[in-house]
Specification:
Nucleotidyltransferase, domain 5; 24% strand; six-stranded mixed beta sheet; globular; alpha/beta
């Protein structure tokens, strides 16, 4: 079994892949001050919850955008699973070309998402990841990342809204039943949802205008589920896209 770990700014998401199937996914909050023993406890508990033991783990692949967490998390994998994990980054074969000004600046999560989208859905494809930040990456028909943008995630924008205003409460980010809000809470939910969705649609349309050829739009990320049914400009919502990309990267490297 392959364990795939996505270390993001908000959450660490762990996936168990058995024979190509994703048989379990779990989330913990990303905290730089967790010890390797704490992370190891999470890992072993999640394995047991899925009916596995550390002995069932053949290998581990890690995709991280939080360097401060990597030392303790990597140490936990070595200590509790007896595996030195593969890290997605420079020197790792991905099957994807990167043609941007500084290829090393591309986040490991954006790279893994792009690999997963191209492997599963083909190209050309625009990959939209709704996480702490919202990212869009374009992969052409030949499997080359040629461009992309990064913008604020809706949760970050929402936190700024209630954090900088004395009388506005924190609200759940969800699709409202109507934009015709009649109280503060639903007014905030509707405002956040439709303003963000409008920005997503305008962004996709701008890519279409400037690229000038048809492409698929694949959405992923924890908050993508909120918007997947709100627009016909997203073709597929795939919450496990990064794990599929990491599995493809792993196969490409162990085959060599």
């Amino acid at each position: 079994m392959l364990v795939a770990v996505d270390i993001g700014n908000t959450n660490i998401v762990i996936g168990f892949l058995d024979g190509g199937d994703i048989v379990g996914t779990y989330r913990v909050t990303t905290k730089a001050n967790h010890t390797s023993d704490e992370y190891g406890l999470f890992l072993t508990q999640f394995l047991r919850m899925s009916g596995f033991t550390p002995d069932d783990v053949d290998d581990v692949i890690v995709c991280s955008v939080v360097p401060k967490v990597m030392h303790s998390f990597r140490a936990s994998i070595v200590k509790f699973l007896g595996v030195d994990p593969m890290i997605v980054g420079p020197g790792v074969r991905t099957g994807i070309n990167i043609r941007i000004d500084d290829p090393r600046s591309l986040g490991a999560d954006m790279l893994a998402d792009s690999v997963g989208a191209y492997e599963v859905y083909g190209g050309p494809v625009l990959v939209a990841d709704f996480g702490t930040a919202t990212t869009f990456d374009y992969v052409d028909a030949k499997g080359t990342i040629t461009c992309g943008i990064i913008t604020t995630g809706i949760r970050s924008g929402a936190a700024a809204l209630w954090g900088e205003t004395a009388q506005l409460p924190e609200v759940e980010i969800t699709k409202p039943t109507s934009i015709l809000a009649t109280n503060t809470r639903t007014a905030m939910q509707a405002g956040l949802y439709y303003a963000f969705l409008g920005g997503v649609e305008r962004t996709i349309q701008q890519f279409r205008d400037e690229i000038g050829e048809p492409f698929k739009v694949i959405a992923t990320g924890g908050l993508g589920r909120v918007f997947k049914d709100g627009t016909d400009m997203i073709d597929v919502y795939d919450p496990d896209l990064i794990f599929k990309g990491m599995a493809a990267i792993y196969r490409r490297n162990v085959a060599h």
